[in-house]
Each structure stands twice: as structure tokens, then as C-alpha cells.
Write a structure and sequence with these properties.
The chain is α+β, with helices and mostly antiparallel strands. The chain is built from six helices and 13 strands.
Length: 298
């Protein structure tokens, strides 16, 4: 295979027109570990840490369904001093619950297990993660690094490069935490605009993959309302009811401002043809997509 005919999953997904809405993985708790060395393809699991420490952190994270991501600053050369770690909790209130610490020895990471049992503090700014995990998927590095550079120049204290966040074919992927909002198919220009709008309290639909506290059809319903009525704050919409009849869904969503309004968003689920979904994955797999069939005010 030559450089000209090499398969890139993000290019293929764009050509197919794969829908991004409803593709944010579920999650409400995240563990971030700053690691300045080379990232293994499997992230935290592949680090050469003391086995008892790794097992402790992994078990504590698994118990609360937390996701563990490696992070690093874009700055060159890499900063000296201890690395940082964080535990971030999503709250429907919009509060930024976080706890941060530092580590120089493997044993220091054991504090993460305790941090996972506490809600965290409210005085930390949001975190902007950009997936650049080339060892996992080359599209994440090729498309993610220019986005990380652009965002780091604009918000140097908020932005971190990170390991695999899911959805390689939608690179470049950016995650806003603890809000739990996934954006995809970004470039250096669009990423700055999307993040700027998000930090100003306006979630836009164009690059939105979804909210991690919602199931895929619920994510699609909220994205459809944002697409129809324009940007809104992260917690402007609340899913209040979900009903399913085979491949058909009815999602009731309430808008809280400027006046209370409820909408029924109806969706039809369909399985796509099998495709190669990642650069490394050779076997084709189908995905589930959702078509919005109607939006009704109730």
C-alpha cells in the first residue's frame, strides 16, 4: 500500500457522510493522568506502573464507571516537575466538580482511589481535551495535533492533549469536561469557534457528537433541537421521557428558557452497512444511525 492509497478512517467517514449525532460514549466520571512519556496504544493499561497501584486505580475507576485518560501539555520541551492527575465529576447542575493532585512516584497515584469517592471542589475551570493518540489511530494524531495547537494558543491553561476518547473516524475530537460534551470533525479554525461558543454557554449542533449523560437516541434528539432552534446552554434541554417501539423512538425534551416548552422528537433507528470504522481495524462493522422523523411541540 502506498501513501496515496492508505486507508484513513476519518476520510472514509466524511466521504460516507457518517452522522456524528449520538456517538458520545456514556460517562459521568473521568480520571486524568498526566504522562509525558510515549503513550502505549492502550493508554493507561499499557503503562509500566507498579502493578498494585495500577490495579488499585483501575478497580476504583471501574467501580464508578470512570474512564481513565492520559493527558499532557502541548508545550515543548515537556515541563519539569511532578505530573498532575485529576478526577472530574459531571453534575446536571453544571457545577465543575474536580479534584487535582500531583505525582512523582507510582505510589502517589493511589490517591486517585480516594478522590473517586469524593465529589470534588467547585473552584476549578473546565478542561478541554483533544485526542491526539496516534498509537491508537493515526487519524487522531494527524487531525488532532493542529487542533491541539490552535486551542492551546488560545486557552493554554485549559487545553490538554489526551489518549483515545472514542470515535476515531470523527477526528479531530474535542471533549469538554466535566460538562461531558463531545465535538468531532474539527479543524484548527472550527475548533476555536466551537470551544469559544461552548465556554460562553452556547452549544452548537454542527460539530456536536453528544452529551455523555444521555443515551444515543437522546443525544440525537437534543442535537436535532439545537440544529432547528439554534445554540443553547449545556443544560437548557432536559430529557424527561423516552419510549421505544421496535426501531422507533419518541424522546420528550424540555426547554427551560426563554419559556418552558416541551418537544417530542421521533426517531427511526437503522443499521448501516458494514464499514471499516478505524484505521487499525481491518474487519468491517455496522453501526446504528438515527433518522429524525418529526419534531412536535407538546
Amino acid at each position: 500500500m502506498t501513501a496515496t492509497d492508505r486507508f484513513f478512517c476519518a476520510d472514509a467517514a466524511r466521504i460516507r457522510g457518517d452522522s456524528m449525532a449520538g456517538t458520545a460514549p456514556r460517562g459521568a466520571v473521568w480520571v486524568l493522568v498526566e504522562y509525558r512519556g510515549a503513550w502505549p496504544s492502550n493508554g493507561f493499561d499499557g503503562l509500566d506502573l507498579a502493578p498494585e497501584v495500577k490495579d488499585l486505580v483501575w478497580s476504583a475507576a471501574h467501580a464508578v464507571r470512570a474512564r481513565i485518560l492520559l493527558i499532557r501539555r502541548l508545550a515543548r520541551p515537556r515541563p519539569d516537575g511532578p505530573g498532575r492527575w485529576a478526577v472530574l465529576h459531571y453534575e446536571r447542575s453544571g457545577a465543575y466538580r474536580q479534584r487535582w493532585g500531583t505525582w512523582t512516584r507510582d505510589e502517589d497515584l493511589a490517591e486517585i482511589a480516594d478522590a473517586l469517592q469524593s465529589p470534588g471542589q467547585l473552584d476549578h475551570p473546565p478542561v478541554v481535551l483533544v485526542c491526539v493518540h496516534g498509537q491508537h489511530d493515526i487519524c487522531c494524531a494527524v487531525r488532532g495535533r493542529p487542533v491541539a495547537r490552535a486551542l492551546s494558543e488560545r486557552w493554554p491553561n485549559l487545553v490538554w492533549e489526551c489518549t483515545h476518547v472514542g470515535g476515531d473516524r470523527f477526528a479531530a475530537n474535542v471533549v469538554l469536561l466535566p460538562d461531558g460534551v463531545y465535538y468531532g470533525r474539527l479543524d484548527a479554525v472550527s475548533a476555536v469557534g466551537v470551544v469559544e461558543e461552548h465556554l460562553a454557554g452556547r452549544v452548537q449542533a454542527d460539530h456536536l457528537r453528544g452529551y455523555t449523560d444521555l443515551a444515543p437516541p437522546q443525544q440525537v434528539a437534543v442535537a436535532a433541537l439545537l440544529q432547528r432552534f439554534g445554540p443553547a446552554a449545556r443544560h437548557a434541554y432536559t430529557v424527561t421521557d423516552t419510549a421505544r417501539d421496535g426501531d422507533d423512538w419518541r424522546i420528550r425534551v424540555e426547554l427551560h428558557a426563554p419559556r418552558p416548552t416541551a418537544f417530542d422528537v421521533r426517531l427511526h433507528a437503522r443499521r448501516t452497512a458494514p464499514y471499516r470504522l478505524t484505521c487499525r481495524g481491518l474487519a468491517p462493522h455496522p453501526t446504528v444511525g438515527y433518522d429524525v422523523t418529526s419534531i412536535e411541540s407538546v
